[in-house]
Design goal:
GO terms for molecular function: FAD binding; monooxygenase activity. The protein is an alpha/beta fold and 377 residues long. It has 12 helices and 18 strands. The strands form 4 sheets. A 7-stranded mixed beta sheet has the order 5-4-13-14-15-12-16, sandwiched between helices. A 6-stranded mixed beta sheet has the order 7-2-1-11-18-17, sandwiched between helices. Strands 8-9-10 form a 3-stranded antiparallel beta sheet. Strand 4 and strand 5 form a beta hairpin. It is globular.
Length: 377
Amino acid sequence: MKQALVVGGGIGGLAAALSLSREGIQCRILERNSSLGVGGTGLTLWPNALRRLDRLGLLEKILAHASPLKSGEIYDGQNRLLSRVNLAAIEEQSGLPLICVRRTDLYSVLLSALENVDISTGAICTGYEPRGAKVAALMDGGEEIETDLLVAADGIRSRIRSQMLREDPLVYAGWMTWRGVAELPEGTFPAGLYREFFGRGSRFGIFAIKNDLVYWYGTRNGPHDDRAPVDPAHKQEALSWFGGWPAPARIVIDATKPEDLVRTGVFDTRPLPRWCDGPVLLLGDAAHPMTPDLGQGACQALEDALSLGECLQRSGSIPVALASYEKLGGERTGPLVARSRRVGRMRQWHHPLLATFRNTLMSTIPPGMLLKLFNTR
């Protein structure tokens, strides 16, 4: 039986282990943190991601954690409506809805489906060493673990990617983001609604998840710093930047527990020259970090995971399968990363003339055309 090591126990890593194990490959997950399936805030799952979860038999389980998004509203910073989008049309056209879920709920759904997969926590992989047709994962304590396939799902700051490419390709987008999940007082925010406010070089958005649970984010142009993503000070900082925005911004931030608020810089990359090095492959954010403006980060990690399993099923040969995986993945994600970058830049425009132009554009574009901008099949 072929063996695979999956470096990283996030969404991409869990989905990859699930996809590979269903193709008869023995998997082991190496997670650097002391526990699995904790942390993070919220994320959107578009129909392309739900179709992959359906192939894994997990569609109904994840849908139980969310209510379909039915309507989207875009306002300027003075609470003037710019556009209203019928998000229910997504389900009408594709047969599957757009949903927002807690990241931890997606973790739990994926974890519940894993069978006969070893999971090692506190396991830090620092690099790899080619060994003929195989590869060894090099661990922080000096251990070397040999395997047939090494899946680098180790995130946006992937050590394995840095070794493979001999450089750090990350590019700072120019803005920071504060993200959180909160349980609101009953009736504070309508079910099935997404609402976003555009300011100058800043914005604030809220997604309904289910009942009175919401996912929110605020963005602000500025230099990047390396403060810890989770810190109690981030809540007061978010209140100072976004507390004066139209309601219910302050209510949403006030209702957020400090441990449920994450502050990070936003990064992406140009298309990487390669995703594979022998039996080593990049997956998810390690392969194609993108700005969050299309809501496709987790979706593309799920696509990668299923694509990897399907390529191995079709070929049976690891080199042939990985060549196909790399080609398909690059063709799929390259345009999405570029489109997300363009959308993000437009949303973050700071110059008053550009911001006015953007808001005018949003108010004149037919809502159906605006929705097509986010269409990912």
